[in-house]
Amino acid sequence: MTEQTGLKVMVVDDHPMWRDAVARDLAEAGFEVVATAGDGLQAVRRAQAASPDVLVLDLNLPGLPGVRVCQELVGANPALRVLVLSASGEHADVLEAVKSGATGYLLKSASTEELLDAVRRTAAGDAVFTPGLAGLVLGEYRRLATEPAPATADEPGAPRLTERETEVLRLVAKGLSYKQIAERLVISHRTVQNHVQNTLGKLQLHNRVELVRYAIERGLDED
């Protein structure tokens, strides 16, 4: 049984040949492709009906832009993972995608193997970016951390993190992937995921973007 067996994926792209090729590659690799869509409004409707684990999303869509699709679907279901697959490497597009709730951003110049690996890692909760873009996104996390945050976890009576949860949170804030954190702490990838999910629940946060922002605000990314 492969790692991706049972993972439900949806592909959204307005170019039929590209959309079909990506869906075929994913299906052949063992993912369950539950739906595809060619425009933004169709994407929202079909994603709500198909409930994919990972949405592979182009940004340039007719009807409703990809960032709006991402905002609507992640807003309705914070557990949804969104991997943007775009021809654009413009910093503004990358940051807008992250702000809309995407957890990964891959350029269409990526190889099939890079795409498959990105979908697997996105499903596992990792933040996945084309090389060179990860530093940009971490910088944006730092900028966001200067703005007021809604989190109230420091108030009296708020849940307290365990020592290990805090340790994992510190490494997340430094930009490490779950795999790197697991290797650093000599624990399993699954254990890292569990710690992150527990921390999200305790702090009443919804995704990794909010988690990193919370950590940086509190200086947990500093040595």
Detailed description of the structure:
- With 223 residues, the chain is α/β, with parallel strands linked by helices.
- 50% of the residues lie in helices and 12% in strands.
- It has helices at 16-28, 40-50, 66-76, 91-99, 112-123, 134-144, 163-173, 178-185, 189-203, 208-217, and strands at residues 8-12, 32-37, 54-57, 81-86, 104-107, 128-129.
- A 6-stranded parallel β-sheet has the order 2-1-3-4-5-6, with helices on both faces.
- The chain is globular.
- The N and C termini lie far apart (41 Å).
In short:
It comes from Streptomyces siderophoricus. This is Response regulator transcription factor. The chain is an alpha/beta fold.
Instruction: Bin the helical content.
Output: 40-55%
Give, in order, the helices and strands.
EHEHEHEHEHEHHHHH
Give the termini separation: 41 Å
Strand content: 5-15%
- Total count of strands: 6
Give the biggest beta sheet.
6 strands, parallel
CA gyration radius, whole angstroms: 17 Å
**What class, by secondary structure content?**
alpha/beta
Average pLDDT value?
83
Q: Which spans of ≥5 residues are poorly predicted at pLDDT below 50?
A: 149-157
> How is the largest sheet built, in terms of strand order?
2-1-3-4-5-6
Give the overall shape, derived from the CA principal axes.
globular
**Discrete helix count:** 10
Pfam family, one: GerE
InterPro entries: CheY-like_superfamily, NreC/VraR/RcsB-like_REC, Sig_transdc_resp-reg_C-effctor, Sig_transdc_resp-reg_receiver, Tscrpt_reg_LuxR_C, WalR-like
Protein name: Response regulator transcription factor
Domain Response regulatory: 8-123
